[in-house]
Every structure is written in structure tokens, then in C-alpha cells.
Amino acid sequence: MYRNFSIVPNIIFGRGSFNQLDDILQPKRSGNDSYMVFVLDDVFKGKTLEGRIPLRGKDFLLHVNVDDEPKTKYIDQLVARIRAYAPVLPDGIIGIGGGATMDIAKAVSLLLTNPGSAADYQGWDLIKIPAVYHVGIPTLSGTGAEVSRTTVLTGPEKKLGINSDFTLFNQMVLDPELIADAPRDQWFYTGMDCYIHDVESLQGTYLNEFSKAYGEKSIDLCRQVFLGDHPDRDDKLMMASYFGGMSIAYSQVGACHALSYGLSFVLGTHHGIGCCITFDYLEDIYPDGVREFRQMMQKHGISLPRNLTRDLDAAAMEKMTTVALGLVPLWENCLGKDWQKIMTRERVLELYRKM
Ligand code: NAD
Ligand code: ZN
What we know:
Strand 2 (36-41), helix 2 and strand 3 (60-64) form a beta-alpha-beta unit. This protein has helices at residues 21-25, 48-51, 72-85, 99-111, 184-202, 209-227, 233-250, 255-267, 271-279, 287-299, 314-325, 328-335, 339-342, 345-354, and strands at 10-13, 36-41, 60-64, 92-97, 123-124, 134-138, 152-154, 159-163, 171-174. The longest helix has 19 residues, at 184-202. The strands form two sheets. Strands 1-9-6-4-2-3 form a six-stranded parallel beta sheet, covered by helices on one side. The protein has a three-stranded mixed beta sheet with strand order 5-8-7. It is an alpha/beta fold.
């Protein structure tokens, strides 16, 4: 069976395209009592970008904090705040920030129309009711959250996305100017998320020509961004992220992501840096990718934290390993149907001990 999936139907790309947001939203506004919710990463509180948001009438500016990666409980709280703000649904949810903020915007738009807690929908195609219209506007590039059909959430029991066609944004605004001022280390980690998506997709057993076409272009752009010196590198990275996301839409990520999920679940390590940490130990699986990744780190003067698992007890190490090994499609994509013979529990534990 071939997968039949939706993609984001409306895209605007270009420097300064954020200025067209008001025009984009106008036809979606339903009347005088209607309102939009702008979900803004609180790192932009009081900054120029906040002042450029086209607030009108009863619009609600909702600051969100992403010091911790989004939890299902946080989504439930934000949904309750919007419900308390007005008795009617908003006309739209506009997420402005990195992958975490975009994921929050996606999840909130789904939970405004679907009853219960965000934790009830962690999995595949559990959402049955279309979301409120929602728009993604990245201020960091690499995760591919702007194009993906998932919103990655940590719940009481698992770290797993709400994967559905309804999760996809209705519109994305790709303005390379918005990523220009991101802190350099964060810019690198999030950019490497994209590079690793490409390596894992291109080297995976699920690869087909669709994924390959997007993955090859994306990795080429990553090389230009992280090994070259281009004045338009923000434009390039934004497109790399988009293409990387499209590549994994029809394939899958692999060992690095599986291990980083375990690390994140137990230690709260953020996605971009977590992927960098785990990738650095996967030379056996991705020799060319890891070599090139180290060149990129060197060029940008990045040094990764070490000995993260040194003080963990046996129970925490076991939990981490269980989370990682639970991501079956990722391992199968990486190592094939017989992956369990290759990636044993002991081998995963050994990798984690080194980190
Ligand atoms: P992020 O959204 O977690 O942000 C990282 C840090 O950078 C935060 O402190 C944030 O406030 C700050 N920041 C963001 N933009 C900035 C800017 N322009 N200037 C200054 N600071 C800025 O980072 P990310 O790497 O983009 O996203 C990681 C998140 O994305 C994780 O929660 C991960 O689970 C999720 N993710 C989702 C998908 C998906 O398909 N939905 C894919 C990969 C990762
Ligand atoms: Zn990733």
C-alpha cells in the first residue's frame, strides 16, 4: 500500500513576506466578533517582530514559553486560556517561532475542535475533526515542523506526535529575514536537525524517488549553508528545512532520532542539540554523514556537551533504552526488517553510556 498524504496547500516565500500576513489573514476573518490567536515564542516579547504582528480588533496575542519542549499538559492549559478568552472559536491560530512554537500552534488548533486532552491523540490518525485554520511562521529553520503532519509532544507516558492530515498547517509564511538573528549555536543545532533528516532519509531502507528528490536537494543546500559562505544562506536553509521535511514525509528518520528521543524523554534534552549529540556517536551507521557533520561543527566552532548520562541510575538508563527501541519504524528504516538482531538492547545501552 502506498501512503496517500496531504501537504500544506498555501506557501509564501521571500524576504519580507511576513509583511503580507495581514492580507493573508483578511479573508479568513469572519466578522466583528471574530478573532485570531497569535501564538508567539516569548523570546520575542517586546522585540521588533512582536510589534509587526498585524493585530486587529479582538485578536489575542498568546505568548508561549519553550524553555521545555511542549508537553500535552501545557497544550491543555493554553486551550483552556483561549476558551476562557472568548466563547467562540477563533478564526485562526498563527504560530510564530521555532519548531516548538509551531508545534504548540498546531496542537492548540487541533484541541480547540477535538474534545479531551492532547495526550489522548498522541499516535497516528486519532484526530477525527478538522482543526481551526492554522498558519506556521518559522523563526528558526531545520525541524521541518512547518511542513510536517505531526506535532511532537511529551505526554505523561510517551514522547510522541499527534500525526494526522489535520495537523498540517493550512498556510506557511517562509520569510528568511525572521531567522537571521537567531543565536548562532541554536541556528546550528536546528540546522543540523535538517541535515540529519536528510542523511537518515537518504540512507534509509524506506527511500523512494520522491524522498530522494527532496532529500538530495535539501542536503545540497545544507552543504552550501554549513560548509560554504553564502550571503543568502538564510534563504537556503529555509528551503533546506522545507525539502528535508518533504523527504521524511515519505520515508522516515532513523537511529539518531530514535536515540535522541530516549535522551530527551529522560533528560529533557532539546531536539536539535540532542540529535547532534547522538549523531556524533553513529559513525558505524552513518560514516559519511558523521564525517561531514564534524566538518560543519568545526567550521562553526561548535563543541557538544559530553557525559550527559554519567550520573544516571540503571532504571533511567533502561527507560531511555526502552523509549529509543520503541520507535520501531525508525529502526526498520535505518537497519531493515531484521533491525532487532543488529540494534540489541545492550548495544543501545552501550551507546548511551558513551554519551
Ligand atoms: P525551538 O523552537 O525549541 O527554539 C529553541 C530556542 O530558540 C528557544 O529558546 C526559542 O525561544 C529560541 N528562538 C527561536 N527562534 C528564535 C530567533 N529567531 N531568535 C532568537 N531566539 C529564537 O527550536 P527548534 O529547534 O526550531 O525546534 C525544536 C522543537 O521542534 C522540539 O520541540 C521538537 O520536538 C520539535 N520538532 C518538531 C518536528 C515536527 O515535525 N513537528 C520535527 C522536528 C522537531
Ligand atoms: Zn528532527
